[in-house]
Every structure is written in structure tokens, then in C-alpha cells.
Design brief:
By secondary structure, the protein is α/β, with parallel strands linked by helices. It has 2 domains: 2-32 and 83-124 and 174-253, Rossmann fold (3-Layer(aba) Sandwich); 41-80 and 128-167, SIR2/SIRT2 'Small Domain' (2-Layer Sandwich). Helix content is 41%, strand content 16%. It has helices at 2-14, 41-44, 47-50, 53-58, 60-74, 86-96, 111-115, 141-147, 176-187, 206-212, 239-256, 258-262, and strands spanning 18-22, 102-105, 120-122, 125-132, 138-140, 163-167, 190-194, 216-221, 233-236. Helix 10 links the parallel strand 7 (190-194) and strand 8. Helix 1 (2-14) packs across helix 11. The chain starts with a helix and ends with a helix. It binds zinc ion.
Length: 263
């Protein structure tokens, strides 16, 4: 891992436009389980019933019951919410230093924003937001659920329409954020995919798109991914340990060597 990490550090230090794609592996250290893992959500619930647009339309009550329970389970015994971890904070810091152009995330947890990242393209939406299926009005999941008596389906304050989570459900196409994500990738000179197995299309096509537009491509993940053959370099390891190492090595390089790079 060490040589590969050094290569990644050098690539970040010399890049003028880095774009990072993040997946579930980046949030597991924050206590948010990977939905697709052996013990994840989809091992105990049917994604067609509680994760798809058809399932939502067919039985919104079942959908809301399941997700309300899921969210309650994410909170600590003291009611605390999941918090950003070292990798989220490192990426936010790189953006502040002008070393990171954008984050594209498959995660719907909002933790990049909590860490202070500003340019975050949420390819799959954000589960903390809801939107009205009739007028499009957006609101916060917690606020909406707090106003909705148990056993009821939330409705819009403005028009009374059915309220849905503002995430991309199975059976739906990705929205505008993904178009913007593709544009960011085309402009990048360094593309890093981290914590994602790159199994879910069309996000899985981004490493190849980056390559085609001349970027160096790094894949950082605990397990092999389906796109490893398209990467210039693969860094394998636990994301928590990698974040720790990266932060230390980048701090040293950015403090000493970056001045000349940034002019
Ligand atoms: Zn409405």
C-alpha cells in the first residue's frame, strides 16, 4: 500500500484539477452500513419493495415505515447523528486548499457537506431531503417526519401532494447532478474513485470517461473493483487507515513542496 499511497500523494500535489468519486466505503467509518454488503440493508429488505419507485408507488406506507425505522437505528443511544469521519474531513480540507475541484458521491447521507465540502454532486440524491411529487417543494426528512403522525404518509405543506425522499430510487434515471458530474470528470487531470466497488451503472463508467479525457485514474478501495484494469494505480486497504496515512503524508508535502506548484 505504501508505494501506491506515495504515488497518490504525488498525484494530488501536482494535479491542477482533482475530482473524487466516493461510495459507501467512505461512510462506513461513520457508522453507515454499506447497503450492498452481506449485512447491509438489501440483505434483509427487498429493494423492489422499499428501494424502488414501483415499490414506493405501490405501497408508500411500507416504504416510510421501513426507512423511519432505519434512520432511528442510525442514531446513537444519546440521539446523536452519524458524523463525518477523517476521509470526509480530508477531502473538505483539500477543497479549501484549492486542491480539489469537486466531489461526486453515490452516498445519500450528506456527510461531505457536514465536513465542509462545498462542491458536492450527489449522483443519487440525499436522504435528508424530501420533495413533493406534485409541486417539487423540498423539505427536510426529519422535519417532515416529525410533523407526520405514525402510520401516515407525509404530504406537502404547500399543495397536499405526496412527499417522497429526494433520492434516486431503483427504476429511476439519474438527474442533473450526474450530468454535471460527467462534465467535472471531463475537465479533471486526476480522477480518484474511493470506497466504491464501481458496480452500479452509470457511475461505474466514470473512470473510463476520465481516462478518455486524459486524466490519471486512481482507484482506492478495500476490495478489488470491476474497473481496476482501467486505473493507472490501485490503492488497496481500509479507507479509515488510508485517510489517516493520506492526511499525514499530504500535510507534509503540502506544507513543504506545494508552494512552488501553486506558484
Ligand atoms: Zn407540493
Amino acid at each position: 500500500m505504501s508505494d501506491d499511497l506515495d504515488a497518490l500523494v504525488s498525484a494530488i500535489v501536482t494535479s491542477t484539477r482533482t475530482v473524487v468519486l466516493t461510495g459507501a466505503g467512505v461512510s462506513t467509518e461513520s457508522g453507515i452500513p454499506d447497503f450492498r454488503s452481506d449485512s447491509g440493508v438489501w440483505s434483509r429488505a427487498d429493494p423492489m419493495e422499499v428501494g424502488s419507485i414501483d415499490g414506493f408507488r405501490e405501497n408508500p406506507q411500507r416504504f416510510y415505515d421501513f426507512w423511519s425505522q432505519f434512520f432511528e437505528g442510525l442514531h446513537g443511544p444519546d440521539g446523536s447523528r452519524p458524523a463525518p469521519n477523517k476521509m470526509h474531513r480530508l477531502l473538505a480540507d483539500l477543497e479549501r486548499r484549492g486542491k480539489l475541484g469537486a466531489i461526486i458521491t453515490q452516498n445519500v447521507d450528506g456527510l461531505h457537506q457536514d465536513a465542509g465540502s462545498e462542491r458536492v454532486l450527489e449522483a443519487h440524491g440525499n436522504w435528508r431531503r424530501t420533495r413533493c411529487t406534485r409541486c417539487g417543494h423540498q423539505s427536510g426528512w426529519r422535519e417532515v417526519m416529525a410533523e407526520t403522525p405514525r402510520g401516515n404518509i407525509p404530504s406537502c405543506d404547500l399543495c397536499g401532494g405526496t412527499v417522497r425522499p429526494d433520492v434516486v430510487l431503483f427504476g429511476e434515471l439519474l438527474g442533473r447532478a450526474f450530468e454535471e458530474a460527467r462534465d467535472e470528470v471531463k475537465r479533471a487531470d486526476l480522477f480518484i474513485a474511493m470506497g466504491t466497488s464501481l458496480e452500479v451503472a452509470p457511475v461505474s463508467s466514470l473512470p473510463v470517461l476520465a481516462k478518455e479525457h486524459g486524466a490519471r485514474v486512481f482507484i482506492v478501495n478495500r476490495d478489488p473493483t470491476l474497473q481496476d484494469r482501467h486505473a493507472d494505480r490501485v490503492v488497496r486497504g481500509e479507507l479509515g487507515a488510508i485517510a489517516e496515512e493520506l492526511a499525514t503524508r499530504l500535510a507534509a508535502r503540502l506544507a513543504t513542496g506545494l508552494g512552488s506548484v501553486e506558484g
